[in-house]
Amino acid sequence: MQTTAPLRIVAVAAGLSSPSSTRLLADRLAGAARERLAADQDRRVEVEVVELRDLAVDIANHLVTGFPPAALKKAIDAVTGADGLIAVTPVFTASYSGLFKSFFDLIDNTALTGKPVVIAATGGTPRHSLVLEHAMRPLFAYLRAVVLPTSVYAASEDWGSQGDEYTEGLPSRIRRAGGELASAVTGRTASGASRALTLDDGEDAVVPFAQQLADLRIG
Q1: Total Cβ atoms within 10 A of residue 58
Q2: How many whole angstroms separate alpha carbon 62 and alpha carbon 53?
Q3: What are the pLDDT digits (tens) for 168-211?
Q4: Average pLDDT, the chain
Q5: CB within 8 A of 143, min separation 6: which ones?
Q6: Which of 5, 29, 54, 72 has the greatest count of CB atoms below 10 A from its CB?
Q7: How confident is the model at residue 161, as a pLDDT?
Q8: Are 209 and 84 spatial neighbours (Cβ–Cβ below 8 Å)?
């Protein structure tokens, strides 16, 4: 009897402190994706979080020597082999952190082709939320990943906020991003026609995932 492989969600967290809001955001996004996947299909779901702070020395050595130590190779293999990816960085100097960028510099620029990715960031002020669009989205576009419509930025004041009648709170944005990732993963791994994202997955998630892949191949 053939055993169906589990769906694998990998979250990369580039926080430097322990505990960190970056790791917390990665955990919550992964949890939202897992919950949605468990509700939408019958396959087992595995979640792994890669904390880059534990790999900082290995990353530096690999950049110098060109050879990844075992722990770093395992992390790279987890990221490139995932069905869906979550990438979370703290904001440093109005961009992603050097540790975050150094890790993804080690990923072959075709290894994430077609892989659905949720991008997210944490910072002390809402003023840096555009880092998601001017830094992170172009990075993963270069790596040929499919960056999902909803990105999540969490400023210090967002934790514990439920939003108001005009804005979504952080928990709502996390659920929406997790739902988009789950839908994309399901469409990417299912046989036959891919499932399109719908308004139930978030008001911005109206582009069918299959069409995103087609556009990516054409480009």
Answers
A1: 19
A2: 15
A3: 789 999 999 999 999 999 986 543 333 444 444 444 443 444 44
A4: 85
A5: 104, 107, 109, 111, 112, 113
A6: 29
A7: 66
A8: no
CA dist 113 and 108 (Å) reads 10
Residues near 217 by beta carbon (within 8 Å), at least 6 away in sequence: none
Give the list of residues 6+ apart from residue 158 with CB closer than 8 angstroms, or none.
Answer: 126, 169, 170
CA–CA separation, 25 vs 159, rounded Å?
10
Residues 56, 36: Cα–Cα separation, whole Å: 32
- Contact criterion met (CB below 8 Å) for 151 and 202: no
Residue 160: per-residue pLDDT: 73
pLDDT score at 18: 83
Q: In this predicted structure, what is the pLDDT of residue 167?
A: 59
pLDDT value at residue 159: 81
Q: Tokens standing for 93?
A: 């100097």
Structure tokens at 65: 């020597």
Token representation of residue 137: 């989205």
Q: What is the total residue count of the chain?
A: 219
Contact 90, 122 (CB under 8 A): yes
Q: Which of 86, 95, 76, 91 has its CA nearest to residue 25? A: 86
Cα–Cα distance for residue pair 136/138, rounded to 1 Å? 6
| Residues with Cβ within 8 Å of residue 136, at least 6 apart in sequence | 87, 89, 96, 119, 121, 147, 151
Tokens, residue 203? 């008001």
DSSP code of 112? T
Helix (H), strand (E) at residue 50: strand 45-51
